[in-house]
Amino acid sequence: MERVRTAFFDAIKFTIGYIMMVSLILFFIRDYIVTLFGATGDAAALVILFCGVLSIAFFFNGVIFITNACFNNLGHPIYSTHGNWGRHTLGTLPFILIGGNYWGAEGVLLGQAFGGLLFAGVAVWLCLRVMSAGGVESEISDFEQHQRQHIVQIRKH
Question: How far apart are alpha carbons 24 and 9 in whole angstroms?
Fold first, then answer.
């Protein structure tokens, strides 16, 4: 399980590096992007916000993707399902409503990012617990017991 843990943290480090690189590029060309799209007023403010803080917040989406892969490969795909459902309902709606109520469009985007931060944190915590428990449950499913029979029957057709 140590190799899995190492790969998990290496993936997070890679995600940090990639997001920071892209965020820096976006930060330095944000005025060009505003000009390119002819954005003014609120639209320009949203582009500037996205090319700054919000682009860095995509790190948390990357972490959720990493934990999804971890859960799926360690025999707990339902954790991915619940995490994604929760993130896109409970982790989005209340925060965008609060953010939008107080800060308008910027608040909606920041609220969505905050929900991603919370659910990424929970997903990492749960993923580390799954790794500590050894990952895959030792019980063999019915499909695995009859896998050879399934393969042979598929080849006949």
Answer: 22
Helix and strand element counts for the chain (H, E): 7, 0
Segment 115-137 mean pLDDT: 90
Cα–Cα distance, 59 to 18 (Å, whole number): 9
Phi, psi of 31 (to 5 degrees): -65, -35
Q: Which residue has the tokens 């998990």?
A: 8
117 and 60 Cβ atoms separated by less than 8 Å: yes
The domain limits of the chain are: 2-156
> What pTM value is reported for the model?
0.80
74 near 19, Cβ under 8 Å?
no
For range 77-87, the mean pLDDT: 93
Joined together, the tokens standing for residue 18 give 């990639």
pLDDT at residue 137 above 60?
Answer: no
pLDDT, position 134: 79
Contact 95, 114 (CB under 8 A): yes
